[in-house]
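Input sequence (664 aa), recorded before submission:
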Amino acid sequence: MKEYQEKQVGLPENAFRPLKQGEEYEPILKPDKIYPEVNTWSVTWGVLMAVLFSAAAAYLGLKVGQVFEAAIPITIIAIGLSSATKRKNALGENVIIQSIGACSGVIVAGAIFTLPALYILKAKYPEMTVSFMEMFISSLLGGILGILFLIPFRKYFVKDNHGKYPFPEATASTQVLVSGEKKGGQAKPLLIAGLIGGLYDFIVAAFGWWNENFTTRVCDWGVMLADKAKVVLKINTGAAVLGLGYIIGLKYAAIICAGSLLVWLIIVPGMNLFFGDQVLNMWNPAITQTISEMSPEQIFAEYAKSIGIGGIAMAGIIGIVKSWKIIKGAVKLAAKEMGGKKAEKIVPRTQKDLPMTIIAFGAIFTLLLVLLFFYFDVMHRNILHTIVAILLVAVISFLFTTVAANAIAIVGTNPVSGMTLMTLILASVIMVAVGLKGTSGMIAALVMGGVVCTALSMAGGFITDLKIGYWIGTTPAKQETWKFLGTLVSAATVGGVIMILDKTYGFTSGALVAPQANAMAAVIDPLMNGVGAPWLLYGIGAVMAIVLTLLKVPALPFALGMFIPLNLNLPLLVGGAVQWYVSSRDKDQKVNKNRNEKGTLLASGFIAGGALLGVVSAGLKFAGIDFYHAEWQNNPWSEVISFIAYIFLITWLIRSSMKIKNNR
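Predicted structure, token format:
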């Protein structure tokens, strides 16, 4: 322990490059030594982080359709806490805090992409019932499956392919942990940015001092353009969304925004131009308006968004095809481990996983619990429906686990929404074929989708935690064990937050966009009611995804941009542009790198602060405390003030990011 205390902490030179033949990676914490990892301090703070960030991530994800990754903010907070309390040798403890707390983001992503669709459909079909236990159990069991299915593949992704995958989020978190162990001063800019971004978004959400969007409808010609040509541009001026754009970066923000601009500037106006005098209600009999009588937002919701759904589904299929060799190799590795093949006699502490017998038994037991949950609650004691459902959930969750882990390892983005959409479509078609349809079928398909979505989300997120642990040298078995506690806490929290947000705002009022859940509801409804789904629109989106892939353009972010509203995509582009500007102004690349790292901290603060205080504002409204100036929002000057405030926010982010210590 003394050796560790006296040694200057830093990642080895071979941390980020492939190992040469016979070369071993030597982590910071030595494999043959025991370090503080799991104790009352790390578990307590890990659980608290899971609760807080689950609430924050659920609010932000339902509001803007993007779930921020909690790993970096939690890591920085953990460092700040250990520094403030002067804890020694806190590196291992901070990894455990981060690993438990990071359950928040992945469980939330799995839950809010599917389960709010139950409330969305309930508004249309009042006979549907939604309970906290259904949301809690589906999130909990899905998260546990994701953990258990991923562990056999840990060595493949983390150790065997060391240096071959970039692991962008794990890299950032590890660098923060290591720099925090050196000097521990990075929490201050995060807290300042969190306070600024949180108060900024809180003023908008709780008081409505200015509009949260700036649109071209702010002037008369913009209103005329929207009414006549169906062309409208919108941008959300919130701090949290700006921070998301910064972290996503210019490349992917531009691709997402390109998909959105294609829809809003070409497809929506084009439909008005060519089909303006027609009533296109073959996919929704409730439509009685002609295209020209609809607003741009209605055209987007009823038609254009379905093209995006088709694109997402096809992008997921393409991802599986591309990753087939990886899936095959990972399955072989898992089969070898589960086949009882003797492991090495002496396994280093840094390579000890939970025993494979526990993993196998745990997976079987969890699937048995899922089966019982389906049989007694979701499928109303129908054996055929239950067997079909459990087979679908088990096979899809296991096969797509490696796809999710591979996506995170390469680009840091998990295409879980696209894979879940495919699951829902497949589940709906099969369940209808075996006789389950109507509202009961909708509930069944969405709960099945919730289990699968959470499992895949957990698998993708957990591989990040395990890579961080590998670089630093913590014990994988401890991370794996305590991940279950984080899953339990996060599942309970997100279920409660979804119920509160539904009662406060509702998911059909427009206050909470919930784009993924709306997409899921749009897919399920026609399939379960015998109404023809918009297969033509899905097909157009699928063809576009294929063409984009052939052109070497990432199809998934482009398709996501097509069904997430434009006002939530344009600020991603602004944030990405700020990131590019901050990281490219100096001739010295080291200066650019340091500026970008500080900008990432500030952007993380915007995200965490805006989301957390967003939950506070929702809680105030839920308690009947409402100071919101609703009438002022209809005044064009509220948008003008919004734009001015946004410019000040961007300026502060740029200037603060550029201010770094001169290390030249």
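Checked by second reader. The chain has 26 helices and two strands.
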